[in-house]
Specification:
binds zinc ion; five-stranded parallel sheet; PgdA-like; TIM Barrel; Peptidoglycan/xylan/chitin deacetylase (PgdA/CDA1 family); Glyco_hydro/deAcase_b/a-brl
Length: 294
């Protein structure tokens, strides 16, 4: 299946490239929903399971299957769980930018977004980390986010959804690779549940999830797509879910034509691939004449 594929393109001869990404949100998305949730010990400890139990387990699983991954860590999480950050670094995986507070960029002015972006870089910088990529909190970047990513010298973003292969975004500060995620390849929609704040209401069977993701990999092998998987250690760090993820990875490896890559290496390959679509973002403007003001 790989024989007629271009070895020099972003897939480097693989039928499908898979990126395993772990967003170590911990308490940050709950606090972004309301500072009052800091008083809810159940909600806070539910989230703390990610850095405390989920990450070490995930690191062991990645060691077992000998595949690389990318960990997107908000600044506040890095500050609260420094040992977890060191564990990820010691394991040799990539650490990338995932905002400071996990507040969404669309709820902020551009100045506030820039301040949050900058603070996250300082938080990771204290560990000697100079992230090469960014993922917007809740995958809600502003139209200017890629400009920030380029201005600060990062190589890629992973938040936009208008493709299932990498593409290149040209900004006045330089070109960044976009590595598109999707809600269907996110464990949040499958597993997230809290009574308050409502982060999800259904707890899916990990067996169903494994089936769904393996089916997607097989389809993507035919279509030459990017399997950008997003998992959260507070969710996928639970035992049954982690074993389903292991099954997905082992099944992909058995196929023989799926290559696992960090986002950083994938971005490098994408930036060097002249065949990829490149251009500036094309923001949507909604006419007040055509659409009501709400
Ligand atoms: Zn997140």
């Amino acid at each position: 299946m790989t024989s007629d594929l271009d070895q020099s393109g972003w897939r480097q001869g693989a039928a499908c490239v898979a990126a395993l990404t772990f967003d170590v949100d911990a308490e940050s998305p709950i606090l972004a929903a309301g500072r009052r949730y800091a008083d809810n010990a159940m909600a806070m400890t539910h989230q703390a399971f990610g850095p405390k139990v989920g990450v070490p387990r995930i690191l062991q699983m990645l060691k077992d299957v000998q595949q690389p991954a990318t960990f997107f860590i908000p600044g506040v999480t890095a500050e609260r769980y420094p040992r977890m950050v060191e564990q990820v670094l010691e394991s040799g995986h990539e650490i990338a930018h995932h905002s400071h507070t996990h507040r969404t960029a669309v709820s902020m002015t551009f100045d506030d977004e820039r301040a949050d972006f900058d603070r996250a870089l300082s938080a990771l910088g204290r560990f000697g980390i100079s992230p090469k990529g960014h993922r917007a909190a809740l995958w809600e970047p502003s139209w200017q986010t890629p400009l920030l990513v380029a201005e600060y010298g990062l190589k890629y973003d992973s938040s936009l959804m208008d493709a299932d292969v990498p593409y290149l975004i040209e900004t006045p500060a330089g070109t960044v690779a976009e590595l598109p995620p999707h809600w269907s390849l996110d464990d949040w929609e499958q597993y997230a549940f809290l009574p308050e704040p409502k982060i999800g209401e259904v707890i899916q069977s990990p067996l169903v999830v494994a089936d769904m993701w393996i089916h997607e990999i097989d389809a993507m092998r035919r279509h030459g797509a990017l399997f950008m998987l997003t998992c959260h250690p507070f969710l996928t760090g639970r035992a049954g879910r982690l074993e389903s993820l292991r099954t997905v990875i082992e099944t992909a490896l058995e196929r023989g034509d799926v290559r696992f890559s960090t986002c950083e290496a994938l971005a490098e390959a994408a930036l060097g691939d002249a065949a990829l679509i490149a251009g500036p973002l094309n923001p949507v403007t909604a006419s007040a004449e055509l659409y009501p003001d709400y």
